[in-house]
Specification:
This protein is mainly beta. The protein is globular and about 55 Å long. The strands form two sheets. The chain has a ten-stranded antiparallel β-barrel with strand order 1-2-4-5-8-9-11-13-14-15. Strands 6-7 form a two-stranded antiparallel sheet. It has a single domain, classed as Lipocalin. The protein is built from five helices and 15 strands. It starts with a helix and ends with a strand.
Length: 299
């Protein structure tokens, strides 16, 4: 037996153990490629209006790499815990122009149960955005289910900021207190989709609920199994922004759901990742939902 083979034998079990310790995050490991849709109402003072509704078909690459071992968190009121996780890099470009739209490095962590504070195991997303934002989003829900995912609608309409009133959850539709100001809802009701967004629905239907694109992507697929992970910055997490962002378009909440699906073609299976993400931007006394959806295939 060669020395190199002996070395590989010693390394392989450790690699398997790293994957096992990821819990449901093990499903993320690898590189995913696909397309999606992005909706954002961004401030437009320089263009002479309160906001501009920007719609993009998107091309995306999402890479997940396991951290090579346990990360110790030292305890002072309970014993140490050991965290396992993945680093990731998300790159999104416009599907029609190939212009870059988004880049996001970060981590997904598998946190074990703790006694102080008392908490069940959880999954945590950490990310940084070059606009000047960083976030921590804790898991709201994480499980594995047989069959396809339940893709509930997500409302894109802006709604009023009411001090002391929490922002509703991702799938709590419709949004409260929709804006009635002349011109604020009109772009949502009479939109024009980018050429790359091919759909059987009307442009107004897609803008009102971008999750329709996810439903279309799996309408004729046989999905045997789905892993679901939902996270929110409102669940004991948070977002920090540079002063310019706070003053001009404060990013106050991020909610996202990821579905990792095992698709059965009848002859073989492959893994597919779908997600919906909503980021709430605050300006002009209004909560503006920024919604992204995508369907990606593992390479």
């Amino acid at each position: 037996m060669s020395r190199q083979f002996q070395l590989l034998q010693r390394i392989a079990p450790a690699s398997d153990q790293v994957i096992d310790n990821l819990g449901l995050l093990a499903e993320f490991t690898g590189t995913w490629v696909g397309r999606g849709f992005n909706l954002i109402a961004r401030p437009n003072k320089q263009g002479g209006s309160v906001f501009f509704l920007m719609l993009n078909g998107t091309s995306e690459t999402l890479e997940f790499t396991p951290i090579g071992g346990a990360v110790p968190n030292r305890g002072s009121v309970q014993d140490d815990i050991f965290i396992h996780g993945l680093s990731y890099l998300q790159r999104v470009s416009d599907l029609d122009t190939y212009a870059p739209l988004h880049i996001e490095p970060g981590f997904w962590l598998h946190v074990p149960p703790t006694t102080d504070p008392p908490a069940d195991e959880s999954y945590v997303r950490l990310s940084t955005i070059p606009h000047g934002d960083s976030l921590v989003a804790q898991s709201v829900f994480a499980t594995e289910v047989p069959g396809p995912p339940v893709l509930a609608p997500v409302d894109s309409l802006p709604f009023l900021i009411v001090p002391g009133t929490p922002i509703p959850g991702l799938n709590q539709v419709p949004n409260p207190d929709p804006i009635k100001k002349l011109g604020y809802v009109d772009p949502y009701l009479n939109p024009k989709l980018p050429p790359s967004v091919i759909t059987q629905h009307s442009a107004a239907e897609i803008v009102a609920n971008p999750v329709l694109l996810l439903q279309e992507a799996i309408a004729h697929q046989q999905i045997d199994r789905t892993v679901v992970i939902e996270v929110s910055s409102a669940n004991q997490g948070g977002i920090l922004n540079i002063p310019f962002v706070v003053k001009n378009a404060d990013t106050v909440q991020m909610d996202s759901i990821f579905w990792i699906e095992t698709v059965n073609t009848g002859q073989t299976t492959f893994q597919q990742l779908q997600y919906v993400q909503r980021v709430i931007l605050d300006f002009d006394g209004i909560h503006w939902p920024h919604i992204s959806v995508a369907t990606l295939v593992k390479q």
